[in-house]
Structure formats: C-alpha cells, structure tokens
Amino acid sequence: MPSVAEILIPLALDSAYSYAVPAGLTLAVGDVVQIPLGPRETVGVVWGVRQSPGGSNLRPVTGRLDVPPLAGPLRELVDWLARYTLAPKGSALAMALRLPDEAAQGETVRIGVRASGRPPARPTAARLKVLGVAADGALRGKSALAKEAGVSLSVVDGLIDDGALEATALAPEPVALPPDPDHARVPLSEAQADAVRDLIAMMNPAPPPDDRPEPCLLNGAGQGEAPGLSAEGAHLAETHPIQERQAVAAAETHHKLTTGVGDETFRAPTILLEGVTGSGKTEVYFEAVADCVRRGRQALILMPEIALTAQFLDRFAERFGVRPATWHSGIGGKRRERIRAGVALGEIAVVVGARSALFLPFAHLGIVVVDEEHEAAYKQEDGVHYHARDMAVVRGRIENCPVVLASATPSIETRVNAERGRYRHIVLPERFGGRRLPDITALDMRSDKPERGSFIAPALVAAVRETVAAGDQALLFLNRRGYAPLTLCRACGHRYQCRNCSTWLVEHRFRKALVCHQCGYAERRPEACTECGTFDNLTPCGPGVERIAEEVTALFPDKRVIVLSSDFPGGAERLRAELQTVAEGGCDIVIGTQLVAKGHNFPHLTLVGVLDADIGLTSGDPRAAERTFQLLQQVTGRAGRGEKPGRALLQTFQPDHPVIAALLSGDAERFYEEEIAAREAAGLPPFGRLAALIVSAADRAVAEAHGQALARAAEPPEGVMVLGPAEAPLALVRGRYRFRLLVKTERSVDLQSYLRDWIARGPKVRGNVKVAIDVDPQSFL
DNA sequence: AGCACGCCGACT
DNA sequence: GTCGGCGTGCTC
C-alpha cells in the first residue's frame, strides 16, 4: 500500500499537507523533507505517515534532507505553541526550523596573521608593538593581534600590505568547546552553597515521597485553566496515534539511558531562584548547569537579548574554562546550522541564548535556566506572540527537565506560582560577601523643589557633588530618551504629535529633530510653529536624558559625563565601548535610561539618583506598578557593588505610593503582598487574564474602521471586559497601523475559544486587514 | 513566504 | 494603448 506523508510546512498554514511518499523512500515522523509547493520547492517536516489504499493523485515528496530530524519533544512544543497562541501550526514550526537563508550563507571568513619574518618598510612605534607580539610566530586573529598589541586594526592591515605579516584564512571558529564542569571552583558564600545544594536536590530524582511539586504548565495562566499536557497528549493521540506514541516511547527510553534513573514518577520541577541584586544567583545556577553537564545532559541558559554580553560569557568561561555556544537572532548562515546540528547531536553541552534558542533541537536537555525571568524582552511581539519564559516552562515539562527561573525581582506570576507551590522557591536573601544593599531615600519634590528651569533637586545635586569629590561614580537615572518628551507652542498651544501614532513627538536636540518613539517618524524641529507661524515660541516640556546632561554639564563643568541610551550616536558597538568605559571608572557622572539598569556592573558606582521615580506609575498599563518596582529596584541595586556601600535618592511626588514606599523601606515582600492582593481583587494576571486582538492594516482609516467594527461585534460573556478602540492607542509598526483591543477576563473563561468566536462572528475582513491574537500582552502600545 | 492573477493610475 | 503598483488568494 502506498504511504502518504502529512507534511507541515513552515508557512502561515494551519494544517499539514499530504504528499505521496515515493517508492524507495522511507519517512519517519520528524524527518525534514523537500517538497514541491505550487511552482517551487520548499522544506517541511513530516508530521505523520499513514498507509493509504487509493493510489493517489498527490504530488510526491522530493526527498529527505540531510539534517537532524525534529525530535518528538520539539514537535510537541510546536503543537503546543500553535495551540496556545492561536497561531497557524506552520508559523509555530517556522520558529524551530529556521534554516539558513541561501543568500545569507557564507560565514564571515576570519583572517589569521603571523609574522612573515620580513621587516616592515617603515617601522613605526605602533608597528613594532604589533611585531613584538607576533614575534612568537603563532597564528592569531587580526583583531586579537591588534588588541593584544594595543593598536588599531589599521596598523595590522598596514603590516599585511607591507608584507611583514602574512595572512591566511583561519578555520572557522569552533562553535563551542566542551565546557568543563570542574574547571574552576569559585568560592561560594554559605547562603549560595545552601542554595546550590537545594537546587541540585530538587533537580534530580529520588525526592522524599511527599515532597513532590504539583506539575504546573504555564507560568502566566490562572489555576486550572492552562491547557494541560494531558489534553494535548489526547489531541495528539487522535491525530497521529502510532507515530506519536512511538516517538514518546523512544524519548522516554532515551531519557532513562542518559540519566540512568528512569524514575517514571519523577516530575522535574520549575524552580524560582530569587536573590537580591549582587547575591550571586549566577554562580548558583552555574553549579546546577555543571551538575547537569556532569550527567551528560545539555543545558540552555536563556537571557534577554541585551544581557547577552561579553561580560557574561567571560564569567561563564571563568567557571567552565571555555565560552559557551551562543544563539541569538543575529547568528546566521552556516554558523547557525552548525550550532543546530551540534545541539541535535548532543555535541554542544551548553547554549546561552536569547528567546529563540528555546526552539533549538536539543538531543537530551537537562536544564533550562531563564535568567532575569521578569524581563519583558522575553515577550515576542510580532509573528507568533509568545512568552519565552512560559514556553521554557512548557518545554521543561515536555522534556521532563528542570527549569530554573532566576531574578532579583520576579514577575508577579512567577511569585504567585512559587507561593502556591506550583514552582519550588529558593531565596538568596543577602548580598555576596556581606555587602549591604544601598540605602534608599526619597526626595519629596513637593517640598524639595529643584530651582526654576531645572530638574535635579538641590539635595541630589549635593549628593552628586559629594560623590564625585570622593572620586566615586554617580548615576542619574531617567527613563526618557531625548531632550524633552513634549513640545508646545506658547502662542497657540499646539502640541506636536506623531501623524501616525497616538504619541507626542520627543525633541532630540542633538539630532535637531522631533521624533516619535513609537514608529520612528521624525521631522526637523521647526523654527516657527507649524500651526500659527509664530517664531521662536516653541517650548520643550519636561526632561529627557539630553536635557539632564545639559544641566549636569552646567553644574559640573570639569567632570566627565556620559549619556547612555539605546539611541546612542554611533550604534550598539560604541555603546558597548561606553559601558566598558563606565565600568572601568573612566567617567564621573552617568546619565542613563533603563538600559543602565540591565546586565552591566559598574563597580565604581556609589550613588544612584532617580530623577522621576513616578514615571510609568500612571500609564494605565495593568502591569505599571510591577514594572516600576522592578526597574527601580534593579537600577538602585547598581549602587555600591564594589567596596563602598551605595545609596540611592528617589525624586518623587508620591512618596506614599505603595511602589515607592516599598522601595524606600527595602521591603520587597510588602510590595509583592500588596500587588498580588490588588491583582487578585481586579481579576488581573495571574488571577485573570489579559489578551489583545491586534488589528492591523496598511491604511490608517481601514485599521481604525475595522478596529471599531470588531469592538462593536464583541459580545463579551459574563466576566469579560473589552476595551474599545477609544482606549486602544494607535501605533505604526513596521509599516502597518495597529490597534490593540484589550480583553480582560476572569479566571474561568476559556479565552482562546472566546477570541476565535469573536473574530469568526466579527465583520468579514475586507481590505488588507489582519487580526492577530496576543494571548497575554505585556504592554498596551 | 512566494508567486500569479487582476484591477486601477500615469507614461514611453 | 501598455507598464506596474499592490491587494488577494493559493499552494497537498
């Protein structure tokens, strides 16, 4: 009987297509195949194979590709992702099957150089330095040589042209050398050692019989409403009975072999590793990773993209002897495929990566660590909308491997899950080495007013003066890029607004422009009001970091000041260099946006001044309080990581606001208690759920009209609230106008089917309108 | 995602 | 008259 393969294609298609399997080709579920699709050839993955009596008129599979097949657990993750996010299955598959683009192939060839023995024509000082380093005759990378000699790349290039250095193509950098779990033991504090012991005990089977955590599937879901794996399993059994069971059985056998345990009843837990800034969480989970590597299994460490720094990789290398394999959206071409293959064959033991690393085809995954678990960057906001932290928990459940969520300021969902016992909880209550957390005090802006036209309160100016006089570093934190967030005409009152989005245009004085921070629209800052024509009467309202820099430079003309924000002139490369400069103490006063709160350590910093602690508290986002607390806790925690204790001053109009009060008292527990109670009362996540219908169109009017029509078409069941387009801000995202109709539900509502119904019963989509669903939106705009 | 088909505007 | 813009629909 001829066999038919059900092939899932990584396109926005919700179901698999049937193809004939040509005689002589045997296909298994998970195989990656080439298939004809319309006029062209594409790749797809075998999602099922069946025998079909009717000799068919189906097109045949072209052939199997020589890449590792998609293993059962990963296929299960794809099915799960599609079901949970309501995305087409093919789109979910695309996450796991991003093969290198033919065009982007070709890894950048690295050039290795060594001394040729010929003397340079003109031996300058810089050239001699390079030749001194190269004298040993060893082959080095160009940039490595330049760095070692302390000169720029052009000197090395000059010497190559000159013939004093000879250049050869270097073998491509190995993707990763095997990490050594016993390379270096870093000294651990008593608290850290305890945490390591607990963590490793929880991760491995043979727990005391009554000490078993309740399995929980999804971080953000309310109790009992996460679609269970059992349900998903049943669904699979219906659609692909034999193949799936075989795959699962194979996976289980494999699991027994690699762990040598095979305790069927052991459910690997999700563990919240909570530790204040500077408590050494990283060292703790490194030990868990080491334990996992010793057992011959693989480890995945997820990080927010921004935190994937050389600094972190070096720390890893100190502990494990080599840098880990890294994975992020920028890795392309051949290297991408080599990492995928290495991971699938089990040759790569540890991957550190951004959210997309979650879909790598690990052969035997032993642990997933989600560092900075609370970071919003884990949310994918286009294409398939998913939260990498939640999917990590799901993948851990599927692979039956432990998941460690690490954070100094866990998200509310994760805290609640830990408190309810669905996650295990390990707390590192103290900073490493007995260092104190910074003292935080409020500057009440109602009484301690800055002078007219200035934004820094006198007490903060004094604190900065004291700090820099002592030779220490001060950070002034303001989460606002640009010069001023709003510009208005004093003659007619006109406020400059983005023509695309519902936002004010931000003045960027350095660029002499008014810029929309939503869509990037920019116009030259006009001399005269575009509305009434009055000259020289535009007023900047409120401060951005550029304006603070102006003030600081006037106050401290002889101090070195650096402004750090994501739009740093010169791009990410220069920004990295500047962060390095700051870390090395090459600057007295740093003025920065939220970027300084993340990832980098500044050992010379002893004072943090928060210029507007209230920003964000009134944004209307249901997660505003949580966000502000996390951000301010992180940024104030930057103070005093070195020898000296740190302190922080918060400029605020609301010292009694629960968020501010919790920061001031250093009582994070209080914040969590209050916020959790408030969320529960309001039916907000994790007790209820948020979802958004994203209505987008290339034409603004069409997007608005359709958004309104959909909002009218909503017939919310009891307990569901729909926020209409009046409240939904409009934004231009990648060339399309986009609305988010927000839906708030109580815990018992099946959100997925409600949203599906809503779209189905809504107005027939005409024009180029797309409606996407964001199951748990992390923000409004 | 590609690619064709088809419908409207502006140009050698 | 066509060239070409993009909106629409289909691919087992």
From TrEMBL:
Give the matching Pfam families: DEAD, PriA_3primeBD, PriA_C, Zn_ribbon_PriA
Q: How does it assemble?
A: Component of the replication restart primosome.
> What EC number(s) has UniProt assigned to this enzyme?
5.6.2.4
The UniProt annotation puts the region (Disordered) at 203-229
Q: What is the protein name given in its UniProt record?
A: Replication restart protein PriA
Ordered alphabetically, the record's keywords are:
ATP-binding, DNA replication, DNA-binding, Helicase, Hydrolase, Isomerase, Metal-binding, Nucleotide-binding, Primosome, Zinc
Q: Which gene encodes it?
A: priA
Q: How is the cofactor bound?
A: Binds 2 zinc ions per subunit.
Q: What is the lineage of its organism?
A: Bacteria, Pseudomonadati, Pseudomonadota, Alphaproteobacteria, Hyphomicrobiales
